[in-house]
Design goal:
434 residues, 5-stranded antiparallel sheet, 18% strand, single chain, alpha+beta, globular
């Protein structure tokens, strides 16, 4: 067996997975920063259209029907496509050579020899991939637009049943205060809402979630062939507020039931497809009890509305809104607490800056309990969440005079702090972190 040169390996490893999928003739649909397409695994039946994501990073993963195990980079994608399996330890070099042949990359070996290229295949030239960074509209402009937009959005009965049902147990007062709203289910309704915003003078350009789409067979150079609309489909919107009470972004509950349940209302431009939008980013959500939300005018210092000295850091929007009210009802801390909700366990970098802005020294952490124990995992814990929780804790402890507590509970009684409150009405155990 000849050993491949480092140059060949690096060239093949750099192949974007979406370019490979396109070369294979697979149908892809762009959605935000990722592509949707059917699973490359031929053993994963297409009857139910198993869904795979190709992310901006170039990695892909199959989520269809809980996932078949297909995931990785372009090399893994090609192996799954051809053979229905991939094991990096045994298949990597063979698949690098095969993929190089398929893509038209000259295979070179460490001994200096080369493999003759198939003359019927064009030489591979990587596409230029430029990422255009569009600055979103100001927080004040986004807040004005989102508040009016949510006013115009419907409230569907099935969404109301979900919010008030046993899992969430929101009251109608809470739903109104938080600003939960349904996503329009028809293009006609969405267009009517967007046109109302435009006619009333609200800014929608560069407000994440709003975009101009190129009409079918339209000319990108003709402004008349572009039409304003909203991006993203799903069930409902969840407002995300900053430290001044402004609704700066919207979280979107998707139609997926296994992975990617929550997405961002986001519209970075895509050449010749859509323009005028901006990426949402992934900001932290600042949450206070629902009874105070209506008193918190946009741009107002939170301390004037809800004086506090302690912050609870939690993962997920619903958890935060539910726990904010339950903490008051059950008198968990004996003092007012503001919740910082991170959109995913690893998206915590904004937290330190917010704490410094407020001058907060007392912090409690309440990530899901599977960060410490999950009997379904081989390692008996969610390694990804555990890793980020440790990183966040270390970052907090490195700050001057920061006092940290960790909230825990029986993993057999509840996964999240919201579940503990709603299902057991019990209080968590407070553990001092030194």
């Amino acid at each position: 067996m000849k050993f491949l040169s480092e140059e060949t390996v690096n060239l093949v490893k750099a192949i974007p997975t979406d370019e490979l999928a396109d070369r294979l003739g697979m149908q892809m649909k762009r959605s935000g920063k990722h592509y949707n397409l059917c699973c490359p695994n031929p053993n994963h039946s297409d009857d139910h259209k198993p869904l795979t994501f190709i992310f901006q990073s170039g990695l892909f993963v199959c989520y269809g029907s809980g996932g078949c195990g297909a995931k990785g980079d372009a090399i893994a994608f090609y192996s799954w496509y051809k053979y229905g399996t991939y094991t990096a330890k045994t298949d990597f070099y063979y698949m690098v050579e095969e993929l190089a042949d398929f893509m038209g990359i000259q295979v070179k070996y460490k001994d200096g020899s080369v493999k003759e290229l198939d003359a019927s295949r064009p030489t591979y030239i990587p596409k230029e991939r430029t990422v255009v960074q569009i600055e979103p509209a100001s927080a004040d402009e986004c807040d004005r637009t989102y508040r009016r937009f949510l006013d115009l959005c419907p409230l569907y009965s099935d969404n109301l049943e979900e919010w008030t049902g046993p899992k969430r147990q929101y009251t109608k007062q809470q739903i109104g205060a938080i600003g939960l709203r349904s996503i329009p289910r028809s293009v006609e309704e969405a267009r009517r809402i967007v046109n109302t915003l435009i006619n009333e003078g609200y800014q929608i350009e560069r407000v994440p979630g709003f975009t101009q789409f190129l009409v079918k067979n339209g000319d990108p150079s003709n402004d008349q062939d572009w039409s304003w609309l909203i991006a993203g489909v799903g069930k409902y919107y969840i407002p995300v507020r900053d430290h001044l009470g402004r609704i700066v972004r919207l979280r979107l509950r998707s139609n997926f039931e296994d992975k990617k349940k929550y997405l961002w209302f986001s519209t970075e431009p895509i050449e010749n497809v859509r323009r005028g939008g901006a990426s949402s980013g992934a900001p932290v959500n600042v949450v206070i009890p629902s009874a105070y939300l209506s008193k918190w005018s946009p741009g107002t210092d939170l301390m004037k509305v809800y004086p506090f000295k302690k912050v609870l850091i939690i993962e997920g929007e619903h958890k935060a809104y539910i726990c904010a009210d339950k903490i008051v009802e059950l008198n968990v801390f004996g003092e007012p607490v503001v919740i910082l909700s991170v959109p995913g366990s690893g998206n915590y970098k904004e937290v330190i800056g917010i704490l410094k802005h407020w001058g907060i020294k007392d912090v409690a952490l309440a990530y899901d309990i599977d960060a410490f124990y999950d009997e379904k995992k081989a390692t008996k814990k969610n390694e990804y969440v555990n890793k980020h929780l440790i990183e966040l804790t270390q970052a907090l402890l490195e700050e001057d005079q920061m006092n940290c507590e960790l909230l825990t509970w029986n993993p057999r009684e509840a996964k999240g702090l919201d579940d503990l409150f709603l299902q057991t009405n019990k209080l968590p155990v407070t553990n001092k972190i030194n």
